[in-house]
Each structure stands twice: as C-alpha cells, then as structure tokens.
Specification:
Elements (H helix, E strand, L loop, with lengths): L13 H10 L2 E5 L8 H12 L2 E5 L7 E2 L2 E2 L13 E4 L6 H10 L4 E4 L6 H9 L3 E3 L4 H6 L12
Parallel strand pairs: 1-2, 1-5, 5-6, 6-7
Antiparallel strand pairs: 3-4
Helix pairs in contact: 3-4
Length: 154
C-alpha cells in the first residue's frame, strides 16, 4: 500500500473477526498503559473483565502491574503461550512486533485502530498467523449487539 493511501480500510468478514475472538484466550497487549485515561487501559480492562487472560507488555521498568496483572517488558519475556498479540504502538513498530509475535508462537497479530503495515501483515500471514489491522477487539467483541433502533423518534 502506498504510504499516501492511509485511508485504506482493512476489510474483514464479521465471521473472521468473531472466530478469532471466540478461540482466543490469552492476549499479550504490547503498549499497555497503567494510565486510566489511555485507550489501551480501557481496552485491557474490558477484555480482562470479559474473561480474556490479559498480559500487559510495557518496557518501562517503573510499571510492574496494570490492574493487578504482572507487566512484562517484552513479548520474549512472557512465560506462557500467547494466542493473540494486540498492538498499541505506532504502526512503524508493527513489523518488528510481528517478528516477535512469530518468535513466541502467537496465533494472531492484531493492530489497534491506526496500527497497520502491509509488510508486517504479509510476514505474519506467511508464518501462519491470522492478521487483523486497524481494528479494536473491544469494539468488534460487542459489534453483534449493536442493533439499530428504527422506532425511536427524532
């Protein structure tokens, strides 16, 4: 994708996204923040409360826990299998994170809204990972429940 074409929409079928979210149990969130005002904190909170085993990844040594969950400095430091690597980092870092996700045997690489890189997607897919980019799992998790209410007055 040419860099100038940042408006490209990554289009995934609802079944593809639902299948990933259904079979995923453990999510390593790269770029997790302890700051309750940050979007990554809110997504981590909702996914954790929904029942996912969340693994926050943040390289800052002063961050040891987020929501009473142990924080890991890197994907390589995680001591258990990871189903999904969710990325809350600049898109320029996605290729390197894709390499790390492959290295730890993750099954899914998921780039948050605004996080996309076709080269990273191709690399991950070639290694057998499912890939989602420029989407939020919290939004996709609840999308089936969004029903229009056409009977409401204006």
């Amino acid at each position: 994708m040419p860099e100038a074409d940042i408006s490209r929409l990554y289009d995934y079928s609802p079944n593809y996204l639902a299948d990933i979210l259904r079979k995923t149990q453990t999510i390593a969130m790269v770029g997790a923040s302890p700051d309750k005002t940050k979007f990554s904190y809110g997504v981590l909170r909702v996914l954790h409360e929904t029942g996912y085993d969340m693994i926050p990844v943040n390289p800052r040594p002063e961050v040891s826990e987020i929501r009473e969950l142990k924080v890991y400095r890197s994907l390589e430091e995680i001591d258990r299998p990871v189903d999904m690597v969710e990325v809350f980092r600049p898109k320029e870092e996605l290729f390197g994170i894709a390499q790390q996700a492959i290295g730890i045997g993750a099954k899914v690489l998921w780039g948050q809204i605004g996080v996309y890189d076709d080269k990273a997607a191709r690399l991950a897919e070639a290694a057998g990972l499912e890939v989602v980019m420029d989407r939020c799992p919290k939004i996709e998790l609840f999308r089936p429940f969004w029903k229009p209410r056409l009977d409401l007055g204006i």
